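A.,

Following up on our hallway conversation. C-alpha cells first:
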C-alpha cells in the first residue's frame, strides 16, 4: 500500500518524499512539472537510496489520474499540487480557480471512487489574511485578499463538507507559515521559476551574485525595526509535520487544521543579518515601498500541532539560512544545473 504525493517534485513535496521514505513508507509521486523538475525526484532517490514510482500527470487529466489509482494500491494522499503565486493569482484568477479547485475536486472524486479516504492537504497561513493579532491560532477567522488564498479557503471548506457527507474520511489541513531552507545535503532545494517572489530565494540569489541587491519592502511597519515580521520554518521541519499528519489521518477520522510554524517571528532585517553572519556573504539592500497585500506581522501559535500531532519545529533561523545557502551555492542554476544526469532515476512512465 502506497502514499500518493501530488506535486511531489516541488519544493515542499520533494522534501516530504525524503522524510516519508526515511520513515519507511512506500510512495508514489505525481506531478505535471509545471513549476518543478523531475530532477528533484531523481535526487530524492539518490539521497534516500530508495526507488519509487512517479508519474507525469496533471490532476485535470481525469484518465491519467485514474490510471494511477488502477495501477497502484493507494492508502492515502498528500496533496501539494497547485499554483501558489499570490501576484500571479490576481492577474489570472480563472486559471488559479480551475487549476487548484477543479484539480482538487477531480482528485477527491477519484479517491472516493477507489475508496481512498485519507488526505493531508497543503494549505497556507495566507488563509488568515491580515490577522487582528498575533500569534495566530487555528480558530482565527479565515479571510484573504487574493485568489490564491481564496482557493486555499475554498478547498478547506470543500473538504469540511466532504467529511460531513461521509464521516469515514480522515483529513488534515496543514497551514504553512514561511517555509525556507533546504535538505542538509544541499542536493534538493527551492528552485523558483524566474525572479523569486519570496525573501529567502531572493537573498540567496543576491549572495550568489545573480542579483545586485535586495529590495526591502517597507521600513515603516509597526514592528521593532520597521520591517515585516514572519514565522520562518525550516522546510525539513515542515516535511516532518506531514509525516505526523499522515499518521493522524491513518489512525482516525475527522477534519483538523494545524498551523505548521515555529511560533517565533523574525523581521526582514533580522533574516538578512542572520544570513550574513552564518554565510559570511554580504547582502546589499535598499528600502522600497511596502508590497501591496503584505501584513506587518504574521506568526503562528503551533501548540495544537504539538498537542495533537506530537510535532514541533526543531530548527532555528541560523540553520535555515545555512541550508538555504548550501543549496544555492551547490546549485547556482537550480535543477537546470549540469549535474542532472548524475542521479539515476527509477521510474515508470
Ligand atoms: C516575507 C517578508 C516581505 C521579498 C508568501 C505567500 C504565502 C506563502 C509564503 C504560499 C515580507 C519581505 C520579500 C523581497 C522583501 N506562500 N520581502 N523583499 O509574503 O510572507 O508569504 O510566501 O503559501 O502565501 O504570501 O513571504 O517571502 O514573499 O515575504 O522585503 O524581495 O519579506 O515584504 O515582509 P510572504 P515572502
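Then the amino acids I'd put at each of the 349 positions:
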Amino acid at each position: 500500500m502506497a502514499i500518493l504525493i501530488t506535486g511531489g517534485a516541488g519544493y515542499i513535496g520533494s522534501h516530504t518524499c525524503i522524510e516519508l521514505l526515511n520513515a519507511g513508507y512506500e510512495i508514489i509521486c505525481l506531478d505535471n512539472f509545471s513549476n518543478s523538475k523531475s530532477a528533484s525526484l531523481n535526487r530524492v532517490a539518490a539521497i534516500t537510496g530508495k526507488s519509487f514510482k512517479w508519474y507525469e500527470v496533471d490532476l485535470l487529466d481525469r484518465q491519467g489520474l485514474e490510471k494511477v489509482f488502477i495501477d497502484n494500491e493507494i492508502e492515502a494522499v498528500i496533496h501539494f499540487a497547485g499554483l501558489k503565486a499570490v501576484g500571479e493569482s490576481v492577474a489570472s484568477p480563472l486559471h488559479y480557480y480551475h487549476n487548484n479547485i477543479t484539480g482538487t475536486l477531480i482528485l477527491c472524486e477519484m479517491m472516493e471512487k477507489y475508496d481512498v479516504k485519507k488526505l493531508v492537504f497543503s494549505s497556507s497561513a495566507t488563509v488568515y489574511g491580515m490577522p487582528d493579532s498575533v500569534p495566530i491560532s487555528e480558530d482565527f477567522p479565515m479571510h484573504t485578499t487574493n485568489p490564491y488564498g481564496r482557493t486555499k479557503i475554498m478547498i478547506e471548506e470543500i473538504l469540511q463538507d466532504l467529511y460531513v457527507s461521509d464521516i469515514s474520511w480522515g483529513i488534515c489541513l496543514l497551514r504553512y507559515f514561511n517555509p525556507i531552507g533546504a535538505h542538509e545535503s544541499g542536493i534538493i532545494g527551492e528552485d523558483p521559476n524566474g525572479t523569486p517572489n519570496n525573501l529567502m530565494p531572493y537573498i540567496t540569489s543576491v549572495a550568489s551574485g545573480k542579483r545586485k541587491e535586495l529590495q526591502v519592502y517597507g521600513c515603516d511597519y509597526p514592528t521593532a525595526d520597521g520591517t515585516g515580521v514572519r514565522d520562518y520554518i525550516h522546510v525539513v521541519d515542515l516535511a516532518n509535520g506531514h509525516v505526523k499528519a499522515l499518521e493522524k489521518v491513518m489512525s482516525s477520522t475527522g477534519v483538523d487544521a494545524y498551523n505548521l510554524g515555529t511560533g517565533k517571528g523574525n523581521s526582514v532585517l533580522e533574516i538578512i543579518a542572520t544570513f550574513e553572519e552564518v554565510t559570511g556573504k554580504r547582502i546589499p539592500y535598499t528600502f522600497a515601498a511596502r508590497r501591496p497585500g503584505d501584513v506587518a506581522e504574521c506568526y503562528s501559535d503551533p501548540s495544537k500541532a504539538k498537542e495533537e500531532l506530537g510535532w514541533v519545529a526543531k530548527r532555528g533561523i541560523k540553520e535555515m539560512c545555512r541550508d538555504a545557502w548550501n543549496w544555492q551555492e551547490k546549485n547556482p542554476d537550480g535543477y537546470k544545473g549540469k549535474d542532472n544526469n548524475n542521479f539515476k532515476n527509477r521510474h515508470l512512465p
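The longest strand covers residues 118-124. Curious whether your intuition agrees with the design.

B.
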